[in-house]
Q: What sequence folds into this?
């Protein structure tokens, strides 16, 4: 499924690094507060790791979709693109008022570049709903039973200790998922959480008191990596 900022291309590289940390530190709790399209959690869960997976996001329709699929829900959509676009347009009208599994599936799965209702995606008659569902069935559905889903802000984990926390927040100075994400407050939160946890952040850049521990750039003009807080 297309998703703005998804880590499909870099998932293996990132998860190898996460796996090493889990094994070397005997970590039992993995938390991902910006789970998005689940590429990282799903890839990590393929390894034989004795850990608890907690994944969350603030997007209500997205989490509603994952929870419903975890319980056996399957999206029903037409093959005809005209009819599919009609469903897309109807759901878009209520995107700020209703947060159903179908809103999540169609909003992201058929949204241009994976942006929630960011314009109906057309490409030579391609049915993106089919592509999204086939990808989820093959790559993610078999793993969903392992995950504990929650719809919440990252600050809900303030009291967590001894966990590996992987964060893929909205990148600063790039296309936003929303207009109200406070990057400065987020980095302060990471500094505090790093006292009792191992916290890794995917970003294009980080404050000066953070260090790059992995470069996973997939585009020549965009540098991406994993960052950690440099503690004294």
A:
């Amino acid at each position: 499924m297309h998703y703005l900022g998804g880590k499909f291309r870099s998932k293996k590289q990132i998860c190898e690094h996460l796996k090493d940390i889990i094994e070397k530190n005997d970590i039992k709790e993995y938390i991902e507060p910006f789970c998005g399209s689940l590429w990282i959690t799903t890839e990590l869960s393929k390894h034989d790791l004795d850990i608890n997976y907690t994944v969350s996001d603030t997007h209500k329709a997205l989490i509603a979709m994952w929870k419903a699929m975890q319980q056996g829900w399957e999206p029903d959509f037409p093959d005809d693109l005209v009819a599919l676009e009609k469903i897309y347009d109807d759901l878009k009208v209520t995107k700020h008022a209703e947060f159903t599994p179908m809103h999540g599936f169609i909003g992201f799965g058929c949204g241009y570049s994976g942006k929630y209702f960011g314009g109906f995606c057309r490409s030579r008659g391609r049915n993106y709903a089919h592509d999204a569902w086939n990808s989820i069935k093959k790559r993610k559905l078999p793993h969903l039973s392992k995950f504990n889903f929650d719809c919440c802000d990252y600050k809900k984990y303030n009291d967590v200790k001894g966990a590996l926390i992987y964060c893929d927040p909205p990148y600063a100075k790039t296309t936003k998922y929303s207009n109200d994400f406070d990057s400065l407050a987020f980095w302060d939160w990471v500094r505090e959480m790093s006292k009792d946890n191992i916290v890794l952040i995917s970003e294009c850049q980080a404050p000066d008191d953070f260090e790059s521990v992995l470069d996973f750039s997939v585009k020549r003009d965009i540098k991406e990596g994993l960052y950690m807080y440099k503690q004294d």
